[in-house]
Amino acid sequence: MEFEALKAALAATPRNVPLLVIVGKMHEDRFELAEARACFDRVLAEDPHHAEGHLGIARLLDLCGEISEAAVRLEALCDKHPHFAPAWLLRSRIALDEGDSAAARTFYDKAVALDRSLADDELLQNILDRGGNKRMAMTSAGTTFEQTEDDDDDFPFEGLDAVAARDLSVEFRVKADMKFEDIGGMEKVKDDIRMKIIHPLKNADLFAAYGKKAGGGVLLYGPPGCGKTLMARATAGEIDAAFFSVGLHQVLDMYIGESEQKLHKIFELARKAAPAVLFFDETDALAADRRDMRQSAGRNLINQFLSELDGAQANNEGLLILGATNAPWHLDGAFLRPGRFDRIIFVPPPDAGARAEIAKIHAKGKPLVDFDPADLAKRTDGFSGADLRAVFDQATEAALGEAMRKGSLVPVSGKMLAKAAKEVKPSTRMWFESAKNHALYANQSGFYDDVLVYLGLKK
User: Fold this and answer.
1) Residue 61: enclosing H or E segment and its boundaries?
2) What percent of the chain has pLDDT over 70?
3) What separation in angstroms does the CA of 2 have from each of 356, 408, 437?
4) pLDDT for 214-253, tens place per residue?
5) Read out DSSP for 80-124?
6) Rounded distance between C-alpha atoms, residue 58 and residue 47, angstroms
7) How far apart are CA 256 and CA 251, in angstroms?
8) Interval 16-68: pLDDT, tens
């Protein structure tokens, strides 16, 4: 029934590219290969550079046994869309089928580095079983080398870091793929970052003349879902730096001493790639107040983190350490001393102008009628970017439900968005309840002054 409704919707809007992709995949799942190919051909007729369309045709060629043509198409797709992880994964499967386990391992590592959710233990085991413990390291000139698990240090910078990042399960980008222009609003935060981060790094020689080194630590704090992680990636893009994203699970280990070793390796990896941005999400989990800890293992990890920030074992010049936290009051005070996270930036919920810009971004690719970004912004005061996405998701689900009942395309209307805005509750309110208490009663250092200004409690 759902398939028939979607086909009816496509008949009503035959140039709807996202719908063509969905219907094409459903034909493919039913092994209706000719119909699927027709859908993907129509996608490329509308948009010749559409990555999903090219990937769909490559999958169909592979299913039909035309592996060589599929491989050629995938190579071209990866050249044009190097950050499109599913293409690298399919390329890995095809390389394995053709007996090239080294290439299969290289393409698999690339896919998982771009999107960890694509990790496939069975595929990786098949690659290893067929000798895929070697990888091809790629230089900036395009030359490839065969590389074993044990000789990472002998190979050029870009390949070495990608491999090391994979081994540590760290999200890695040789060059960040976002800039400030890709993030709606947040102009004050962007200005703060320019003054505290970007200008010092772009004018390193000038700062060196005054005895100041580029790099250091910056802490982004604020309610969840307001773009701290996106802002970190965009900061790396603005300074044309490598970007490493580290979560709690990439550091913590069940064996004593291993967590500290992992943390050190992550810092070493970023130092070799300088200029680089090393981003720690949920920093409060790795930098918790030692007074709250009963076990020495946690204390040892915090001491190691402090040592790495100080550059006690190596030079941190050209390395910018960005931390993001929703609970800055849980950080050990030692992390906020000069030379560590000594620059603090409050990332508030987006203002009305920013919400309108975010709404426009979420509206892309959706069939909309009576859509007024400014009106939606007025209805969503205090909403985070994640809350706004939930508004669009809920309104889109309502439109899809109605479309399946009618058997024809139903656009997302301004009325549906207004209704969803009423039903979605801003997730930032609970955060500000906690932050307000800390800002009023535990703010001797002025750490939370920006929160008080945002709440209108201080000028």
Assistant:
1) helix 51-63
2) 86
3) 33, 11, 50
4) 677 889 999 988 888 888 888 888 887 778 888 777 787 7
5) H-TT-HHHHHHHHHHHHHTT-HHHHHHHHHHHHHH-GGG--HHHH
6) 16
7) 12
8) 888 899 899 888 888 888 999 999 999 999 999 999 999 999 999 988 888 88
- Furthest C-alpha separation in the chain: 71
Q: What are the boundaries of each domain within the chain?
A: 180-346, 352-425
Q: Helices 385-406 and 414-423, interaxial angle, to 10°?
A: 130
Mean pLDDT by 10 residues, the chain (459 residues): 77 88 88 91 92 93 87 90 92 88 88 82 84 48 36 39 58 66 80 81 75 78 88 84 79 79 88 84 79 67 88 79 89 84 88 89 85 94 91 91 83 93 92 90 86 89
Fold of 180-346: Rossmann fold (3.40.50)
CA distance 243 to 322: 10
Q: What integer pLDDT is reported at residue 336 of this predicted model?
A: 85
Q: Which two tokens stand for residue 403?
A: 């479309």
Residue 292: C-alpha distances to residues 81, 221, 288, 431 (Å): 47, 21, 8, 21
386: phi then psi, degrees, rounded to nearest 5: -65, -35
CATH class of segment(s) 352-425: mainly alpha
Residue type, 127: I
Q: What's the N-to-C CA distance of the chain in angstroms?
A: 59
| Inter-residue contact 390 to 345 (CB < 8 Å) | no
Residue whose structure tokens are 């007729």: 45
